[in-house]
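Project standup — Tuesday

K.O.: blocked on the structure for the chain from last sprint. Re-posting the sequence here as requested.
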Amino acid sequence: MAESFIRCLENAFRHFGGVPQTVVIDNLKAGVIKADWFDPELNPKLEEFARHYGTGILPIKPTTPRHKGKVEAGVKYAQNNAVAERGAHSGGHAHTQHHATASGPPLHRSGVAGPW
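H.V.: unblocked you, prediction finished:
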């Protein structure tokens, strides 16, 4: 489980072309062994990964919904767009329907070209 999470982080670094100074994560079991407000215990494999890449891992504080909401809103956005995108590539019109209320898919609005 930790290996998959670390692989995802590594792929994100590669995709975005760099490593951030700090990575803020939720208190998932693959990354955080013991959630604590002041001294969380990170998975040793994740700590080694962070040392290798020269980044810091900052778990959100437990029982702090205002922090968790920001993380989960991004996840929900990505899931909704990935599902819509997958439907459009399989011959469906889910992508078009999903963005019917906007002026186009998010990447179109930002001027970045996509595979559609």
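K.O.: great, moving the ticket to review. The beta strands are 22-25, 32-34, 41-42, 56-59. Residues 66-109 form one domain.
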